[in-house]
Amino acid sequence: MDNNLLQWKSRGQSFLSRLRTWFNLLDATLLLSSDAEILKAHALLGSKERLNEKDEAAVTLSLSSFHPDSGAALPLIFRPPAYFPISGPLVVASLLPHSSVKPALFWQFLLQSYNAGFNHMNRNTSAEEVKKTSLKHLLLIAGTVSYTTSVGALPQILINRLRVRSPPLQMFCRSILPIPLSAALAFFSVLTIRTEETETGIQVFDYNGNPVGISKAAGEKAVWETGLSRAVLFGMTTAVPNLLVWLLQRTRFFQINSLLVAPCRHLSAALVFWLMIPVSFSFFSQVGTIKRESVEEELLAGAFGEELYYHRGL
Length: 314
Description:
Elements (H helix, E strand, L loop, with lengths): L2 H9 L3 H11 L9 H13 L8 H10 E2 L4 E2 L9 H13 L5 H21 L6 H4 L3 H18 L1 H8 L5 H10 L1 H16 L1 H6 L1 E4 L5 E5 H33 L3 H5 L4 H22 L4 E5 L5 H4 L6 E5 L3
Helix pairs in contact: 2-15, 3-4, 5-6, 5-15, 6-8, 6-11, 8-11, 11-13, 13-15
């Protein structure tokens, strides 16, 4: 088991401990570190039996920037600390009310493309068949981006094509429909981009970190957990600002100063997204567990203990 996974295994047992860790890992200043510094930090994790407080900076850098399956530093723009600085503005722009379909499609395309790339680069690549990206998988990624872009812009398409002028219908298309749509598309993107893990399986380990074999059941569990956490992230980011705006519009102050409603919506969307990223990343541990009886029969002979461990990916 990789040093990063051993660290997650020791500190990722509870939601609060994972949340505290993720708040540290999402520090954007970590993006200033070079690949050489990341590799040095990761090597330090395996060179000492016990890490002290001085080594905590190396642990944070390694967990935030090193991929435990590929054995290399993650590309700069797809590291967890880069997630909010890049996707945050795209999320806010995609939630803006647009006057035509083209701007809605444009911002959805950028957002869905980045999400697809992030899902792909942070997937589990422990199986040999998944280490290299095949042409088939590239076409699948392109198809996923095209589909999620089109469906993501559906509210604006409905308003324009059907010439919706009724305020209640416009409110439904702009404020209510995007909530389940955003959550479903985020879940769908993870499920399709990481479909190879469910088809070929991922590496599972025993309690001591020794590899047991490749399990499709663990791969499916890892993908579904990640998909659910991403659905919560985007669903909450869409729902909370809309609810807040609805409450604000009922107050006398915002009825008089209606021009302040839009900035409040945008700022709240960015704030909720920023807060929900570490929360959603913390729902499930990076080192997931699966019951021994849930894995394939051929793995049971080498499996010791009641639970086996796997790298969930992000």
